[in-house]
Amino acid sequence: MRGGQGAARAPVLQFTNCRILRGRALLREDLWVREGRILDPEKLFFEERRVADEQRDCGGCILAPGFIDVQINGGFGVDFSQAAEDVGSGVALVAQRILSHGVTSFCPTLVTSPPEVYHKVLPQIPVKSGGPHGAGVLGVHLEGPFISREKRGAHPEAHLRSFEANAFQDVLDTYGSLDNVCIVTLAPELGRSHEVIQALTARGICVSLGHSVADLRAAEEAVQSGASFITHLFNAMLPFHHRDPGIVGLLTSDRLPPGRHIFYGMIADGMHTNPAALRIAHRAHPQGLVLVTDAVPALGLGNGRHTLGQQEVEVDGLTAYVAGTQTLSGSIAPMDVCVRHFLQATVTLGKASCCGMKTLRQPCGEAPMVRN
Amino acid sequence: MRLVILDNYDLASEWAAKYICNRIIQFKPGQDRYFTLGLPTGLPRNHPESYHSYMWNNFFKHIDIDPNNAHILDGNAADLQAECDAFEKKIKEAGGIDLFVGGIGPDGHIAFNEPGSSLVSRTRLKTLAMDTILANAKYFDGDLSKVPTMALTVGVGTVMDAREVMILITGAHKAFALYKAIEEGVNHMWTVSAFQQHPRTIFVCDEDATLELRVKTVKYFKGLMHVHNKLVDPLYSMKEGK
């Protein structure tokens, strides 16, 4: 009988003895790849009539899509909120180093900063595809300065702002260009937030609610205006109260626009959220859970003092505080540690893989598959 | 015929698998000597429940067969009759089928040779009987309008040409069909009965499938199990030279 076809075709690689994520479950299946694209093995078998050129035994491991980190402030000494001359190389360094944590796409995050910083830094962080050189940049996440004074957390009070005067124009004046931005975190209780939320979502930017003292009603109205994400659930917002669940109540709200889901970031580093709280959120709304690191520049460095935005941060083991206080200042747990910790807390293997990632700009997240 | 009766579905499946394994190895297949395995056909392609998907997920992806050696009737072919004729030709070119493995429908059909099919039929396009459509509805979320009403199938004659035929029958709902197939006469209303005239047929079933048979028949064949089991024990392995 005849052998295989076309020597001109690129080689087919078959990963065997592995578990892959499909349809929100982990299945014992092989993964077939050619030139960095995932193949449908049925088409390969029945139409091309080809077998794999190379097989790789995965030793029973899980073959997971690369993680997406939508909130990371820096790492390995790099601080995205610093108005450096060469921001690009800092971003590239972080992009390259987080690959070993399993992250293949990320949103460099800038904390509350003065306008000069945004004007200087933002144009230097373009959207960029990932590859062996480093994780892809999906766009910048701007966390602040339009946030609540009371819930600013580690953000510097001096640089907080409001958009009551000129709504969206204030936003443009503060940030400069929004070209490379994909997420903005703001507090919806601020005056004229609805205009701002609508203007941002009209430009395809994901609006996230966070660092806020909004009650559930204000949060629901923000979602109706277009907000679709919650920044680090439980942290920097009013605690859940049974007569007014606040932003946390969005997880089970029945006032969201039909067909829309709310997504929420959670820091599962073992510090920012008690495992019981992780489980409550997960059980209430598992499809919306997105694991984030909220990692600070101290990620990957040792204990001691480091810079975050305009402030000093003290690192001790797995904890980072605003120097001289007890306020948590972001996390230094890498994404794979967060995933493992989340797994341990919730004991749901398949779903953890779904939660570490999300495609922005889509009402329902679909996990993008790994390339290479 | 041989009638092999095992206690339940799993044991029947395992017995059949071992038998097929031994048959292939005893055949001493090689680069120039292919063992041709025949299987019944199914639904049109490009459907999630298509026979191609079914065969891929349940068979091909678990073995290292060369895709060029897997021949499946294409329900989407432009000229269906030509597709069927070509299939018959391929079987001939392969030297004929060494072992055909099939099941039985509740109406006694083999492959999609519905009641009334000619017992000397060849590969062709068949309109499915309502019984078969109802049985297939479970693959289409119970929506009868979605179940295909036609299928390409190997004919009764095509299967009769195989050197050996194995029929797998499990479950009480198949019991009446089994009774008609082996205890009544050869009848085109129960097409599996055609194999009474085949020199080498083996029926593998579970207890439930024998519910409509005479006690005498069941006792006779159960009494032969020690002979039947010699066909699967010892279980040969390709690694041993024989």
TrEMBL record, chain A:
<feature type="binding site">
    <location>
        <position position="272"/>
    </location>
    <ligand>
        <name>substrate</name>
    </ligand>
</feature>
<dbReference type="GO" id="GO:0019262">
    <property type="term" value="P:N-acetylneuraminate catabolic process"/>
</dbReference>
<dbReference type="GO" id="GO:0006044">
    <property type="term" value="P:N-acetylglucosamine metabolic process"/>
</dbReference>
<keyword id="KW-0119">Carbohydrate metabolism</keyword>
<feature type="binding site">
    <location>
        <position position="243"/>
    </location>
    <ligand>
        <name>substrate</name>
    </ligand>
</feature>
<dbReference type="GO" id="GO:0106279">
    <property type="term" value="P:negative regulation of UDP-N-acetylglucosamine biosynthetic process"/>
</dbReference>
<feature type="binding site">
    <location>
        <position position="143"/>
    </location>
    <ligand>
        <name>Zn(2+)</name>
    </ligand>
</feature>
<comment type="function">
    <text>Hydrolyzes the N-glycolyl group from N-glycolylglucosamine 6-phosphate (GlcNGc-6-P) in the N-glycolylneuraminic acid (Neu5Gc) degradation pathway.</text>
</comment>
<keyword id="KW-0378">Hydrolase</keyword>
<dbReference type="GO" id="GO:0008448">
    <property type="term" value="F:N-acetylglucosamine-6-phosphate deacetylase activity"/>
</dbReference>
<feature type="active site" description="Proton donor/acceptor">
    <location>
        <position position="294"/>
    </location>
</feature>
<dbReference type="InterPro" id="IPR003764">
    <property type="entry name" value="GlcNAc_6-P_deAcase"/>
</dbReference>
<dbReference type="InterPro" id="IPR011059">
    <property type="entry name" value="Metal-dep_hydrolase_composite"/>
</dbReference>
<feature type="binding site">
    <location>
        <begin position="328"/>
        <end position="330"/>
    </location>
    <ligand>
        <name>substrate</name>
    </ligand>
</feature>
<keyword id="KW-0479">Metal-binding</keyword>
<feature type="binding site">
    <location>
        <begin position="235"/>
        <end position="236"/>
    </location>
    <ligand>
        <name>substrate</name>
    </ligand>
</feature>
<feature type="binding site">
    <location>
        <position position="211"/>
    </location>
    <ligand>
        <name>Zn(2+)</name>
    </ligand>
</feature>
<dbReference type="InterPro" id="IPR032466">
    <property type="entry name" value="Metal_Hydrolase"/>
</dbReference>
<feature type="binding site">
    <location>
        <position position="232"/>
    </location>
    <ligand>
        <name>Zn(2+)</name>
    </ligand>
</feature>
<feature type="binding site">
    <location>
        <position position="154"/>
    </location>
    <ligand>
        <name>substrate</name>
    </ligand>
</feature>
<comment type="similarity">
    <text>Belongs to the metallo-dependent hydrolases superfamily. NagA family.</text>
</comment>
<dbReference type="GO" id="GO:0046872">
    <property type="term" value="F:metal ion binding"/>
</dbReference>
From TrEMBL, chain B:
<keyword id="KW-0378">Hydrolase</keyword>
<comment type="pathway">
    <text>Nucleotide-sugar biosynthesis; UDP-N-acetyl-alpha-D-glucosamine biosynthesis; alpha-D-glucosamine 6-phosphate from D-fructose 6-phosphate: step 1/1.</text>
</comment>
<keyword id="KW-0119">Carbohydrate metabolism</keyword>
<dbReference type="GO" id="GO:0016853">
    <property type="term" value="F:isomerase activity"/>
</dbReference>
<keyword id="KW-0175">Coiled coil</keyword>
<feature type="domain" description="Glucosamine/galactosamine-6-phosphate isomerase">
    <location>
        <begin position="43"/>
        <end position="198"/>
    </location>
</feature>
<protein>
    <recommendedName>
        <fullName>Glucosamine-6-phosphate isomerase</fullName>
        <ecNumber>3.5.99.6</ecNumber>
    </recommendedName>
</protein>
<dbReference type="InterPro" id="IPR018321">
    <property type="entry name" value="Glucosamine6P_isomerase_CS"/>
</dbReference>
<dbReference type="GO" id="GO:0005737">
    <property type="term" value="C:cytoplasm"/>
</dbReference>
<dbReference type="InterPro" id="IPR004547">
    <property type="entry name" value="Glucosamine6P_isomerase"/>
</dbReference>
<comment type="subunit">
    <text>Homohexamer.</text>
</comment>
<keyword id="KW-0413">Isomerase</keyword>
<dbReference type="Pfam" id="PF01182">
    <property type="entry name" value="Glucosamine_iso"/>
</dbReference>
<comment type="similarity">
    <text>Belongs to the glucosamine/galactosamine-6-phosphate isomerase family.</text>
</comment>
<dbReference type="GO" id="GO:0004342">
    <property type="term" value="F:glucosamine-6-phosphate deaminase activity"/>
</dbReference>
<dbReference type="GO" id="GO:0042802">
    <property type="term" value="F:identical protein binding"/>
</dbReference>
<dbReference type="GO" id="GO:0006048">
    <property type="term" value="P:UDP-N-acetylglucosamine biosynthetic process"/>
</dbReference>
<dbReference type="InterPro" id="IPR006148">
    <property type="entry name" value="Glc/Gal-6P_isomerase"/>
</dbReference>
<dbReference type="GO" id="GO:0005975">
    <property type="term" value="P:carbohydrate metabolic process"/>
</dbReference>
<dbReference type="GO" id="GO:0006043">
    <property type="term" value="P:glucosamine catabolic process"/>
</dbReference>
<dbReference type="InterPro" id="IPR037171">
    <property type="entry name" value="NagB/RpiA_transferase-like"/>
</dbReference>
<dbReference type="GO" id="GO:0019262">
    <property type="term" value="P:N-acetylneuraminate catabolic process"/>
</dbReference>
